[in-house]
Amino acid sequence: MTMRRILIIIFITYISAYSNDILHYYSKVNDRNLNIGIDAISVQTNDFFNKLDESSKLVLMNKFEEVKQLINNFKFFEAITLCNELETSYKDYYILYYLRGFAYYRTGDIYYSMLDFKKLLTMYFDEREIYEVVGNFFDNINDYEFTLRTYILAYKIYNDYYWIFLAGKTSLKYNDIKSANNYFTQCLKAGIGYGFEGFADINLLHNQYADALNNYNNAQMSYSSYNSYSNNRIDIERLNSKISNATVQRELYNWNSKLESREFEEATNILNNLSSYSNNFPEINLALIKTYLKMGNYQLSKNMLNQFISVNKNFDEAYAMLAQIYLYENNEKSAIEILEKGLEYSYNKPRLYETFANMLYNAGYSFYPNKIVSQIIDLYDISDENKIEYAKYLISKKEYFKARELLNGIRSYRATVNSILDSIGYNIILDKAEELNRDGYYVDIMELLSANKFNGYEEQIRIGYIANSYYRLGSIDRAINILKELYDNDSISINNVVLLRELLKIRISSNNYSQSQKDIDFADVQSTIFWEDDLKNNTKLITDKIYEFIKYNQYDEALAYIEQLKIKNYDIDYIKKIESIVYGYYATFLYDNRQFDKAKSISNLAIRRNKDNYDAIAIKNQIYVDVYLNSVGNFNNINAYVKLSDIRREVLNISPAYIDNMIKLAEALVYEYNIEGYNIINNILKYIDINGVRDLLLGKIYNKSGLYDYSFWAYNRAAQYIDVDLLDRVESISIADNNKISSLNFNQKRKARDYYALSKIYVKINNYNEAINSIQRAILEDNLNLDYRYQLGYINEQMGNMREALEFYEYVIKNNKNHAAANYRAAIIYLEYFRNYNLAYDYVMNYISLVPDDYSGYELLGKIYKNRAESLIENNTENLFRNALVSYKTASDKAIWGKDKEAKKNIEMEIQNILNKILK
């Protein structure tokens, strides 16, 4: 069977199980069960407004009407300033916290908005719109508890079960079925249609279409008999939409059953009966295309898919099906391009990543699909096929425990899985044998390997070690006999043939053997040469030979061997493909070992042999991204405001197939006070199906929002199910808190990054000796990471060792002039401790060029000018003060509202101080 047909069978099998878009199947997880009862929430009855006299009420209303007008005119900062002024007199009035919180929300300042809205919920108020806005806010930032509290409070104010229904819907979003059941049951007990609607939503979640439609119909009858806040028209419109959706999903479920049993006419008839719904449900048209594809009408399917994608860009299955057709046409390049395009719009759909990785694996690539799978495997419960391929990658990296853990969770392909698990055991033993071989412990090798017998390729390596050990211990005859037996049985690897030939040549050159034996050995040598020349009829042995070179990172030897094959006129197309693959592996090895220039050069050679070597292309893109990020500066260790979203978008354009790039874009957006970052994360959360991962992602996004308590507790919840990066957890502790610090596990086995995290936490608690010890351990583990050297400098600075700190900062800058944090700290030390204004000026200007949007660089520049003027060592004092004034004013303009509020006050004081000096 041709490779193309094999790929099509594999891909069709994959597509058959692919149903995220057409049937909306995806598994959710429940890693939280709040179960907040209605009676658990109490309502405040203290109404500040009604206690005022009429005159005071009028004054108050006029003042806050002015705030509302500012908000309506998008003057949010002015509205916040006015609210701050009013807070002294009206701190007990709810509208202050609502308007200010809303203004903060519109500026994207989630932290201060959250503070005001939480304060608001402790007060009495009677405005339905406010409950909706506040509920939506907490829901959007995934604060499950306060979303429920908001809706339950509203229910207690209005006695309207609509709010209990919203609480139930919120529980469904988090797959907290127990809580949802409780809320919907409350609605049913009151004879309200929301209960029927809620249970219908649960039915639909479980694909119980008949029950769902029955409950929706009951809800419709109920809505016609009462009025609610949301009113009949809105309720019935929403319900009609849900009934249509349930009807379509039921029929699509039936269609899928007919399609799987290849009853194409019946499947098409079902879709024709749904045609009136197709404008509102594009998945009907996609189902029709899939039907044609199953029937083998590739050209029609291809045309329809291109038209469908141009209108509906976020349907992941459409891209997967089109890629399948391109593969059928033997157009691998277009298949990969369309999947990469699909991931730009369907970045949150796990199946599209899986389909892409599966296709790349089957096409013979390694780096690209491994990188894709490595980023989704901890987010989603991926397919067994991709788990197996990724496990092989982990084994090649000697991450045996992780590979074994992954394989043990696979339920299908047990024969394959068991074989790979055996291979892990073999490789652990062979790694030990390699270590003994390097040290010359041949007797130990014999004891280790003689008691075991392996299978396949590993058995050939075992025999090779044993034969070589016999030779090294003086038993060349025994070594030759072992290898000769394999050779005679035609069950020998190329490496063992080469070893056999070398041992025969040694015996021929010895004086201890008769001429007749030497003649026999010489004939055997010639036989091995003829055998190797005949390899063009057995490409598997060639692949095995090259794989053995790759296994031990002997890429130059592999390429030299390929050159010999070229001379021998083997199948040149096959050899070129193999050569390109080897170059791709070589580039990966160099990249992993930070030899970026050479990796780029080798990837270019791979692409020259095969312009569509996507491993090499991916490595080249990765190097480009790394160089690009390095050129725009390193900001990891400072709290400066850096506009990163443009940088992340550029990275996303270069490498669209990595979900990490989209997550980092979301983090950059919320760091820039752009709520769109939460929209990205919420889209990804829809398809998460591993316990703990939802909170892991939320921990990252909360940290960038300044919601450090939210971040810390999100990481704590995640840690109940999965491993959470220690550095992330440490970053979520904004100030020293013994309770939070004690919850971290300090005793587990550490990597360099963990020691780096520990050093940061020790700095927070002023334990500088342990901080130094930890960061030095990190440097021992990873000597090339400049962030660790920077941290060592920072710790020394905190200890008062300014000269040592400066040495570390300047070491970092020497190796990476774009390390913004090191430039900033070096400028401070030169200014405040060594009074070297020239070097302080140079470093702060470097910092400003790297971080032009941050106030702190301009503030420091202003301080340099001011100190120079006050030192009286220069004649142009007035000009220096004026330069300081300009710098401080720039700093004030750059200071971010909310986050830099206190800094802004200090800068304004400095500005006034300098103005006074200029006037004098």
From TrEMBL:
<protein>
    <submittedName>
        <fullName>Tetratricopeptide repeat protein</fullName>
    </submittedName>
</protein>
<dbReference type="InterPro" id="IPR019734">
    <property type="entry name" value="TPR_rpt"/>
</dbReference>
<feature type="repeat" description="TPR">
    <location>
        <begin position="786"/>
        <end position="819"/>
    </location>
</feature>
<dbReference type="Pfam" id="PF13181">
    <property type="entry name" value="TPR_8"/>
</dbReference>
<feature type="repeat" description="TPR">
    <location>
        <begin position="752"/>
        <end position="785"/>
    </location>
</feature>
<dbReference type="Pfam" id="PF13432">
    <property type="entry name" value="TPR_16"/>
</dbReference>
<dbReference type="InterPro" id="IPR011990">
    <property type="entry name" value="TPR-like_helical_dom_sf"/>
</dbReference>
<keyword id="KW-0802">TPR repeat</keyword>
